[in-house]
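== Item description ==
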Amino acid sequence: MFVMELTYTAPIEAVEEEMDAHIAWLDGYYAAGVFLASGRKVPRDGGVILAGGVSRAEIEKIAAEDPFTVAGVCAYRITEFIATKTSADLSTVRENPAA
């Protein structure tokens, strides 16, 4: 599983110009079952996406396709972790690490 942390690198006005395209990009990966949760950080200097079911290479490609990235208004920090415990709603993304 991955925590994708976005940090805005441009004024919020530039971010807002790309918001509709960013939301459409999010919707596509929710529909594909990759994105599990997302939202703005507080204070509003970026956002966070929880993702799963893909490789590190795939998640980096997905981040590079974000309209925010393409427009140069954000930078990503991607952290991979093994979700060994989850809520019942997220049980399908639980992972069992190799012994």
